Amino acid sequence: QEINAAVASNFLLPMRDIVTAFEQQSQHRVSIASGSSGKLYAQIIQGAPFDVFLSADQEKPSALLESGHGISGSRFTYAQGSLVVIATNGLTDDPKALLSRGEFSRLAIANPRLAPYGAAAVETLKALTLWHAVSQKLVIGESVGQAYHFVISGNAQLAFIARAQVQNSQGEHPYWPVPTKLHNPIYQDAVLLKKGSYQLAAKQLLAFLQSEQALSIMDDYGYQPAGQQ
Amino acid sequence: MGFSAADIEALWLTLRLAAIVTLLLLMIGIPTAWWLCRTRCRWKGLISAIIALPLVLPPTVLGFYLLLAMGPNGPVGQLTEALGIGLLPFTFGGLVLGSIIYSLPFVVQPIQNAMEAIGERPLEVAATLGANPRDTFFNVVLPLAKPGILTATILGFTHTLGEFGVVLMIGGNIPGATRVISVQIYDHVEAMDYAQAHWLAATMVLFSFVVLAILYSRKHLMIWK
Amino acid sequence: MGFSAADIEALWLTLRLAAIVTLLLLMIGIPTAWWLCRTRCRWKGLISAIIALPLVLPPTVLGFYLLLAMGPNGPVGQLTEALGIGLLPFTFGGLVLGSIIYSLPFVVQPIQNAMEAIGERPLEVAATLGANPRDTFFNVVLPLAKPGILTATILGFTHTLGEFGVVLMIGGNIPGATRVISVQIYDHVEAMDYAQAHWLAATMVLFSFVVLAILYSRKHLMIWK
Amino acid sequence: MSTLPLDARFKLSYPGFCLDVDLQLPCQGVTALFGHSGAGKTTLLRCIAGLETAATGHLRVNGQIWQDNNTFVPTHRRALGYVFQEASLLPHLSARENLAFAIKRATQPVTEADRMDTIDLLGIAPLLDRSPGQLSGGERQRVTIARALLSKPGLLLMDEPLASVDQPLKQEILPYLENLKTTLDIPIIYVSHSAEEVARLADTLVAMENGRIVASGPLNDTLTRLDFPIKLGEEVGSVIEATVTERDPQWQLAKATFDGGELWFRDSGYDVGSQVRVRVFARDISLSLQHHSDTSIVNSLPAVVEEISTEQHPGLALVKLRVGNTPLVARLTHRSAHHLELAPGKPIWAQIKSVAIIQ
Amino acid sequence: MSTLPLDARFKLSYPGFCLDVDLQLPCQGVTALFGHSGAGKTTLLRCIAGLETAATGHLRVNGQIWQDNNTFVPTHRRALGYVFQEASLLPHLSARENLAFAIKRATQPVTEADRMDTIDLLGIAPLLDRSPGQLSGGERQRVTIARALLSKPGLLLMDEPLASVDQPLKQEILPYLENLKTTLDIPIIYVSHSAEEVARLADTLVAMENGRIVASGPLNDTLTRLDFPIKLGEEVGSVIEATVTERDPQWQLAKATFDGGELWFRDSGYDVGSQVRVRVFARDISLSLQHHSDTSIVNSLPAVVEEISTEQHPGLALVKLRVGNTPLVARLTHRSAHHLELAPGKPIWAQIKSVAIIQ
Ligand SMILES: Nc1ncnc2c1ncn2[C@@H]1O[C@H](COP(=O)(O)OP(=O)(O)OP(=O)(O)O)[C@@H](O)[C@H]1O
Ligand SMILES: Nc1ncnc2c1ncn2[C@@H]1O[C@H](COP(=O)(O)OP(=O)(O)OP(=O)(O)O)[C@@H](O)[C@H]1O
Ligand code: MOO
Ligand SMILES: [Mg+2]
Ligand SMILES: [Mg+2]
Questions:
Q1: Which residue, among C66, C88, C90, would best test binding to A if mutated, counting the most A CBs under 10 Å from its CB?
Q2: CA-wise closest residue to A117 among A217, A18, A14, A36
Q3: Chains in contact with C, counting 3 or more C-beta pairs less than 8 Å apart as contact
Q4: In whole angstroms, how far apart are CA A50 and each of A3, B134, C222?
Q5: Which strands form D347-352's sheet, in the order they lie side by side?
Q6: Are residues D346 and D306 part of one domain?
Q7: Quick one: signal sequence residues (chains B, C) (predicted)?
């Protein structure tokens, strides 16, 4: 059976590896459609042929359940993201120090309205009481992906991004893992969709997400299992 | 460095999409341009404005509204379902429709300008020689509007190759059906797979450059013949 | 339902951006079109192709490459820094530059076609009456290329209003500096704030419709005068 | 056939100009449309061709209604050929393709021989592969004429077709058009400022002024009217229909007999018995009281003075003569008229240089 | 001034056509460029105007080098006026604005009086606010002529400027151009198929064929050459420079005296003592053995036969005469020549109708 998985962009890379492992174990094939969660959500409401939805937040899967597009009871938190602050190539100093001393001209974050990592970044800045100091230097990307681009192109010196991106990054970017206590946990929820035609395979995929194998792949990419605080 | 199977699939799909869309754009755009050029209808200005309107919305937002319209509750969706075509979003057909709407102004405008530049005389001459309006259209208007049609083709084709906001929204990034090369490059960039993104982008740019350079040289040849 | 202060700020910024970009597009596009129309240079076809090339890349990807080029390690960035302008990304100036690159083909093409349609005779006539090339350009070529220039203005303006891939990438969504209305609408959609998105989109569409309808009616008047 | 094959009434207004014509023309032969610049000649042709859709009126050609209150036959269904005043080759087609365009849509099949004849006559064979931009002014005009002829029209509208054609070529094309007129049996409306062309071709003359028709009628009647509303200047004259009765092969001359006498003219191979048209310009007739045989003037005809009027220039007189039943007009100075004591009824010799006879 | 003010040598090749001219023209007066359709007249004018950048050669006008191996003065810096063969008003400007365009860029200031005069002369005052598309063919041409004149050129190139202008209007414009010629003191090159225009205006005649100049020289020399390479047909004739010596107000006639005799012609207000140019068409001269006083022919001059040749038509003879030192050409039938026993050296009377004298 062939199923379609709608996956939030930030989880695309681990998902690819997880799917490869899943396909080796089962007879099913999975194709991944990635995009921003908001876009995927709109598409699902309009009848997109997705079997499962791996969101970057908790809000959209629960909205889908409420509107009846998701199958009740299928929602669960498949991963918890970790936030890091990354600095441009060549900045040898500790990003945390740079951040607190304000030694940068641009700080990139993801749009807090759209991306949970963005919201977490704002919470962190507020917790560090840096919010007022940095708000004039903020540049906002559509996603953490964009925030990352701002840094690697050298246009911003610091960015709040997902740990997963550092894991995969090219070049020597010093980074600082943001302590989870500084912000609300970034829970990413998945849900099984009504529109999906092969619910059996889809359920198996969701189950596989919670397997040891999947969790170790997630760990490689900097995701923590849900609930581990 | 090479292409993955997914890249090749996307490349192929893109070319098919761009070719079909360009063809349909010309088939719709040419008569529309001619009508706009000839009519004395008072709504002419308004209709031109409506054709240009999709341009003012961000492609993703336009795609969002097209998605609503073509969805099961939208007017287009209800029409296509009633016609037994089914729903268009997330199908190749849907991509084609979306791309057409988005690129139509680039096609209608240059053709209309070229047709207006022809003036009355060649049409009058053709009529006195016994050519009916259809005959005149095919054998006088179209050949004389060639520079505009070529420009329209180039703009329509390249715009379809490159645009992905609309496509991403109504296509849903489904491999083999709606994942075109622009989406693929975007995915590579988002996945930080820059090498692959550069490679694909360079291929696109190079291929397009060759095609465009040939078209443009022919255009200049044509005009200065 | 009303506009938030952010919406109004974005609206205002967008209009400023579109107006400035359109003006600069015309200032760059008109001489370029004229040069392409008159030159016998053999690279003409290639240069036309290069101008059209940005179209084949997805705007976001184009924006990504512009970000690299305008960054501190990119050639443009090093140039602007050497010139004391500083870096362009996340500035209004950067948006202007990016939008110009992205919309240039829509401006050059129609103007070039219109100029080519003028033919040799009016230029020869002007020369025999003692008009130097500059004089001829301003007093013969520009007035006669009016329909093409109008089309270019419309396409350039609307395209700048609507495009956001490039803008998003090099703008950094900074309120008051680079957060334009297209990004704002996009954000509303992504944030599932559909009502606010509809409201803003409708405003944009309505406003543009009125502007376009006026421009098009004037165009038709002009041609049939 | 029908008695009034071309019946046209049109009204059309431009700011500052108003066309208002009511015109009946015979079903065959050439009608010359004469009139000053801006008189409305082109506008009238355009109305007839159906190119002025704003014109109201009535048009019947060869018994078919082309326009009236309820009908408006579109141009492409009017079987007509139109030679526009300005060059009007289709710019994307070569000369050859322009001709082919007409042939393909002609009302009757065009044989290869027809095609070759027309091309040869207009001397355009070497130009066929050029595009319109590569032709000289006269060359373009000739291709346009050929194209109109090859469309085998039922009505031919020609707007100053020979204006940019040089004299010798004109001398070749004119006889062809004359010939066309008799073989084709279609009406031709011919706008021209050249009295020579008009005299050679026209059977009917229509004079326009300010959008109105101020005179019309058979050629000779109009030309010999001393009060003709359009001043013909150097071109006043008359036209005599005559029959060839003798040929003199030694001197290459031929003799034509008409009601009133006979005229010698240069022989261009006319058959004895054929009808010819002899054009006599007023300026080419001199009058004498006696017949002189020691001059180079070959033709000397006894005539009677009918009427004397003053020309545009006050020193000049136009004298209308009658030779038998044929009217002639002579132009001379008032001093000569006085000197010769001319008065209506006076018998006189009209001396006509044979070389001044056109056809 | 300089002796050879316009010195032009050009070479230019098109597929199937090759221009190769070497031409010297006097610094003032009108040069008529004559030649069949496609002979290269327009191409030559374009070379002189600097519009054919591919042409190689040499051009010196009024002592200034406009083109040679190293120099190419661009068109807009050549002080010339060009009336194109086709209508060429700037389409985005009204007639008035077209004139203003020229006036603004004229080489000398144009006074309001100049402007009004030109407008009146060409009869375009009522048309000034129309756009070119709203003008008739002749109206467009007149505006174009006015525009060229108002640019106050140092060299005027006119390509069949009066082809679409009607006869009476031509009669008004021609004297103006003649006048221009003497007052402006600039060279005018004038392409025309009309021998009438040429005879009235031209001082020099240049004949082209196939891209080459086949004959050139002062008007009368060229016109009276019986072997003139371009067949002039009806227009063969001669031009006599004469002086007005008497006016007859009663009969509105004037008398001109020249080396060989005197001629009466209609008086158009010439001052006694002024120079005039008298055009005599070969077809308007008849020969007689004796002088007759009972005819309407006013002018009868004693002449001597110089040369007899055959015209295009074998029945016609061209006879070159000498009246005093002035050459004249007469056309008659060979039969008449035989009948009058014409031979070189024979004395004869040349009868010229006064009305055939043009200026
Ligand atoms: N579209 C128009 N708008 C206004 N006036 C016009 C228009 N077309 C023609 N006219 C005017 O109508 C009159 C008649 O024009 P028309 O072309 O019929 O003249 P014509 O007799 O053919 O003259 P010509 O011998 O110069 O060609 C002219 O005075 C012209 O200016
Ligand atoms: N661009 C071109 N390419 C090829 N041949 C050309 C081109 N322009 C002109 N010719 C040819 O050159 C010759 C001379 O043209 P030109 O226009 O000088 O003739 P013309 O003497 O002005 O004739 P007309 O009296 O008909 O206007 C013609 O045979 C014409 O066909
Ligand atoms: O501007 Mo877009 O939404 O990246 O195609
Ligand atoms: Mg006309
Ligand atoms: Mg010419």
A1: C90
A2: A36
A3: A, B, E
A4: 7, 48, 52
A5: D285-288, D347-352, D299-310, D316-323, D326-333
A6: yes
A7: none
- Residue whose C-alpha is closest to residue D144's, from D89, D196, D106: D89
The ligand 2 atom at the shortest distance from the C-alpha of residue D138 is 26
Higher model confidence: residue A52 or residue D250? A52
The domain of E262 spans 237-356
Amino acid in the structure at residue E147: R
Beta bridge partners of A211: none
Domain harbouring B58, CATH code: 1.10.3720.10
The model's pLDDT over B76-112, given as tens digits with 9 standing for 90+, comes to 888 988 888 888 888 888 889 999 998 998 899 899 9
D217 and D291 in a single domain? The answer is no
D51-71 pLDDT per residue, tens: 999 999 999 988 889 999 999
Q: The domain that contains D313 carries what CATH number?
A: 2.40.50.100
CATH number at residue D20: 3.40.50.300
CB contact at 8 A, C212 and B53 = yes
Q: What angle do CA E251, E253, E255 make, to 5 degrees?
A: 140
In contact, D304 and D345? CB cutoff 8 Å: yes
Strands in chain C per DSSP E: none
Distance D43 CA to ligand 1 centre (A): 6
Q: Record the pTM.
A: 0.86
Q: What's the total number of domains in chain B?
A: 1
Q: Is residue E1 part of a domain?
A: no
d(CA C223, CA B116): 8
Query: Alpha-carbon distance A183 to A124, whole Å?
Result: 5
* Residue C103, pLDDT above cutoff 80: yes
| Domain-embedded: residue D1 | no
C142 touching E (Cβ < 8 Å): no
Cα separation of D305 and D282, whole Å? 14
Structure ipTM over 0.90, yes or no: no
Would you say the C-alpha torsion B169, B170, B172, B176 has a positive or negative sign? Answer: negative
Q: How many domains is chain E built from?
A: 2
Q: Comparing C-alpha atoms, which of D135, D85, D88, D96 is closest to residue D119?
A: D96
3-state secondary structure of E333: strand
Q: How many residues does chain A have?
A: 229
State the average pLDDT for chain E: 84
Q: Are residues E320 and E343 in the same domain?
A: yes
Which residue is it, tokens 């997805």? C58
Residue-number span of the structural domain to which C192 is assigned: 5-224
The verdict on D204 and D299 lying in the same domain is: no
| Cα(C166) to centroid(ligand 3), Å | 7
Q: What is the pLDDT of residues D267-326, one digit of tens each?
A: 777 788 888 777 787 878 888 888 888 888 888 889 999 888 876 667 778 888 888 888
Which residue's CA is the nearest one to ligand 3's atom 1?
Answer: C165
E68-82 per-position pLDDT tens digit: 999 999 999 999 999
Asked if D142 and D242 sit in the same domain, the reply is no
